[in-house]
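Input record (Table S2, row 809):
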Amino acid sequence: MKELSPLDVYGLLPKTNCGECGERNCMAFAVKVVNREASIEKCMPLSSSEFAEAYKRLKKMLKPAVKEVVIGVGENAVKVGGKLVMYRHELAYFNPTAIAVDVTDEMPKNIVIERIKKTEELHFWYIGQVLKLDMIAVRSTSNNPEKFATTTKMVAENTNLPLILCSFNPKVLEAGLKAASTAKPLVYAATKDNWETTAKLAKRYDCPLAVFAPNNLKLLRNLVESLLKNDVEDILLDPGTVPGDGLADTLNNFAIIRRCACKRGDELFGFPLIGVPMTVWFDSAGTAEEIVKWREAYLAAMLIVRFADILIMHSLDGWTLLPNMILRQNIYTDPRKPSAVQPGLKTFGAPDENSPVMFTANFALTYYTVASDIESAKINAYLLVVDTTGIAVDSAVAGRKLTAEKVAEALKKSGIESRVKHRKLIIPGKAARLSREIEELTRWQVLIGPKDSSDIPKFLQEKWHTN
Amino acid sequence: MPEFVPPVEAYPGKVVEVKLGATKSEGGTRGKTVIIGGEKTPAFYTFEGATPHPPVVAIDVFDMEVPLPKAVKMHVKEVMGDPAAWAKLAVEKFSADIVTVHLISVDPLIKDATPKEAVKTVEEVAQAVKVPLIIGGCGDPVKDMNVFQAVAEAFAGERFLISSITRDMDVERCAKFIKKNGHVALSFTPMDLNMARELNRRLYNHLPREDIVMDLTTAALGYGLEYAFTTMERARLEALTGDLELAHPMSSGTTNAWAAREAWMKMAPEWEPRELRGPLWEVVTALTLLLAGVDLFMMMHPAAVKAVNDVVRQLTKTSVVNVNAERIAEWVSMKVYGEDGG
Ligand code: B12
Ligand code: SF4
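Output record (iron/sulfur cluster complex):
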């Protein structure tokens, strides 16, 4: 598909340069809109009836290749899809893969509750963000509507996480939908056998609907077409996750669908994708549990890389989920901007005039790593965050984004000279080669710190004396 | 609505094939050779064409005792300090396709071992195993050049992969001794496609394209993996659209995954055990880059190596024509075995 230029957007804006959108002029706004840094709703004049037609055309022009679908309600609702591009470097990926954990209507109640709690509570602090799991998939293994209704009700009462209601039996699905009618769950799934009834259910309860056609893209696409004809608009696609000898086909299907949507403008495939790594559990009879978890974990990783918008998992072990939570965060960062933190002086604990002064880079990963090392050792210290344009210490030293001049300037600006009596600066071990120059420019004594900030506590114990 | 046809594209470019190792009849002493590269489609878009050569794993062997994460060390502690025994273990027990001999001890800041001693180490390893070898340096550009030259000359004709040639070396000199003695260059640049192109161009003055593999730098999961992934994915896509300077097989120093603290550190109980988390870190780093187009993985943990080999086998198998998707057709109602009622 043709790449959008700011001029395409500009042409449809009011062109009065009124500045209501917060930009200097319409052209600046158009650039932001094309880069997806501003939405056209911010241009107030555009909402007047005079521009109704232009607004409509802009909306169409900016429509993502993969539809954005919302599941759930309230602050825990997840947005999936909304992809503009197939490859990350073409712009950026939006709406990180949502990870769902399954429970069933035949699990004992205490286990269901335990799994929900664990799903809600599992979290990891990573470069200043908290990484979490997103959804609960309720599967009907009983195929019994009453049982499913009871479980779904209990789940809905115990969590605000969005739900996926899983059954191929419309009667079961309807029982679940009644039990969780206000939660706007994802209905999983329409198949070649049940699609007419499930389509009606999705409409009646105003819920998004998944389509499942394992390893059969033709069928999947036909089903989408039928659903659209029946006015179901919020659709998700599951082309099947077939582990083992089906891995190649699985990845192919995901790539074909995403290529059709992003490169060929195929609207029938322009919907978010569901991957189900937990299918390994049904393909591994007799295998040790640890190994199944291990396989589920790396299958999930491959699906995150290969375009999945939702994953349904069974293992709730932190060691299987952490790599995937981090991978997802990594792949969904915006490649156009480095992840940086605000430069400046930070304090830890209650530092006084004798407390150590150190500096670091303003790359988010660097800063949060160093900060958490200082915090967890309960050290009182000053940490000067130098603006390295969001680059890590040794890359920045090599790329001259971290120089003695920058350190000297940051030191001066921070006002630290009036807060401490000593003149000793601890520098990262990986910036050792700047030490002489820093000493010359600042007249501070430089102490070369360890290469890894986890050794800071030990280093201070051995080397920090102010007199 | 017209009938659905999978969207197959035609690519003008093709990744060059590079042969590692040489058998007796080819002028070396290896028992087998390994060919990497040759792709004509993005990684594992097998609906467009088969993967010509399955990606392979080289296992790291160090020429002296080095600090290793506990999860790795437990598998190799018997052979640490004995590179020949380590190489044998890597091939016989851990199924390495290739062995990387890291000549750490030549580092002037470590043991400053001489090029002659390095040659001796390589000799021992080459005797112990018959797979192709990768010769790794210590990171000091001047010392590495001297060591690489000595090894290249002592093992002329073996098609060792010399790891690696960097921009701060005398690239012309390296290219010449690699060419003259029949080896292969690993062209290493830090995540920058222009730099990669430039270094490759300098190598072309003396080396044919078939003698160059490139390493665009691997950062660990959580520590910049996305930069590595995107750089490699771009390189491969550009190679396929006809950029010859990037149309080389890609190598990844996947062992860098262990630089991530979360790979080796003891963490809160919900993230344990690290004996499983660590190797999984290496696997996830590898598989992410596998899907970007990496052809050669330098790895460390045996379980991680096995996982990558398993996945590669699944992705390149040709025997199964019709996958039986029926077995997952009822997944929503299937019970996970071994779990109470669930
Ligand atoms: C990701 C990466 C990049 C990314 C950077 C992303 C970013 N936002 O930083 C990109 C691709 C942009 C990049 C670019 C470059 N990179 Co780079 N990059 C890396 C890589 C793979 C990881 C770096 C990283 O994220 N580390 C993690 C962070 C947390 O580490 P850190 O900031 O150093 O912090 C640690 C320590 O320094 C210490 N610490 C930090 N602060 C403090 C403070 C105190 C007081 C103490 C005691 C300790 C301490 O603790 C922290 C935790 O361990 C490394 C290789 C590697 N595997 O390490 C190469 C590497 C750092 N890069 C390198 C180079 C050469 C470059 C470039 C110059 C290449 C180029 N010519 O373009 C550019 C420079 C960029 C610029 N404009 O300045 C080299 C540096 C070699 C050297 N030492 O001279 C490396 C080592 C790769 C290599 N072997 O060639 N790079
Ligand atoms: S609010 Fe609209 S009309 Fe006004 S400057 Fe911004 S884009 Fe232009």
